[in-house]
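Give me structure tokens for this 265-residue protein.
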Amino acid sequence: MRRYILGVSGLCFIAFSLVFTSWKKSNTLEEKTINANITPLKNAYLNYAEHIYDSAHLKASGLAFPVFEKALTGFYNLKKSGRVSNSPLLTIADFDQASSKKRLYIINLAEERMVLNTWVAHGQKSGEDQAVAFSNQNDSFTSSIGFYVTGEEYQGAHGRSLKLDGMDPGFNDNARLRSIVIHGAPYVSEGTIAALGRLGRSQGCPAVAPELCNEVINTLGSGSVLFINKSTAAYHSAYLNEGTAAAFAQVPGLINSDLASIHQD
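Here you go.
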């Protein structure tokens, strides 16, 4: 009887092993098929991003390609979501760079050129020359990273200003409550950098030089995309899906069958 039970157990074990091996091979084959489809998509999208990056001479101006590619992906996904206007402008405030660097970039994607490259301030409690701390809390006097859409302009304590709507829950969606806006500030100047070794700091707003404020607001208008970057593992966004961005952007080199074969989130 014991031998019989052991024999049955052995057969069950062998059967389970065969089923598991077959399932594992099936899953591996499926993963390889998905990866084979994703690779051409991602390669085509990265080539497209690199083309714009090179055409706009962004490397020479100090903007790293991974930062630009991240911002570009968010731009197209925000377009797809219907949250922004038809503006071809993508604005990046790159807080990986020190405040003494010209780290604000306004890029015309349709014309593949940089419209403006200038200084931009970060929040008082985000850091000195380098922005290292971020918050979404009211009265934190820190900057908030992530994607924004420009809103309406108004006359405030700093004169003409442009409201911002944060698109990333938990990271910047309290922008309206915190009155995070684009405005001019005298502490954003070469003189301040010469005196302090850094720009002056805001209460969390991406402040620009007073003499450029009108130009920035006129250029951006309402409904354009702003990305405030800080490369950190803590940041995540629903707008960083390269597959949906590539599909919406109609990236050159991709055909409909390539896109149809990819599962889109």
